[in-house]
Amino acid sequence: MPEHPLRLMIVDDHPVVRNGLRGMFDGLPDIVVVAEAADGHEALTQARSARPDVVLMDLRMPGLDGVGAIERLRAGHPEVRVIVLTTYDGDADVSRALAAGVAGYLLKDAPREELHAAVRMAAAGGRIFASKITSQLVERLGPAPKAAPTPRELEVLRLIARGAANKEVARALLISETTVKTHLKHVFAKLGVDNRAAAVVVAMERRLI
After folding, report:
1. Which residues does the UniProt record annotate as the domain Response regulatory (predicted)?
2. pTM of the predicted model, to two decimals?
3. Which of 65, 8, 15, 58 is nearest to 31 (CA)?
4. Residue 175: which H helix or E strand, with range?
5. Number of structural domains, the chain?
């Protein structure tokens, strides 16, 4: 158990959902709900004062929606890990969330234990996606390409999967940020994706990392 409990914020426009999610985390020694928000704008305000480690974020909300909130939250607080928790699993929703840099994408029928594990994994730098989402993404991308990522490209991707930024990857591998970006560009092309989170999902599904 960490020295200090993980700080969790819940963002959903339905009070009953927020109450239900809070109840799922009540009593855990290592996770504490520090804030709730009913829309994206409120989430940004609460994040500044509550300083959460992880955010459970709904997608469809009035005003500023989930993806918009994620983009602004990541820009202002890149250390915060965001997990989408929604009833929507369409390609457009998933693609927008992945492009925004989420640490996970779960559906609202996820059991309590899966939510607990997802928050802990996200806080530790990992990523977690509902099996249905992963299957859809891999199916949409089609069969594995003939050109596989090189060992160096996989080293970069493993660090990205742990939540490292380009600068941190460059420092760890003793290469430049430009080289990191080049490796990622090649990985995206080989895996048939267009963003970091999708690359991690596909690489994990294909047991590359």
Report:
1. 7-123
2. 0.71
3. 8
4. none
5. 2
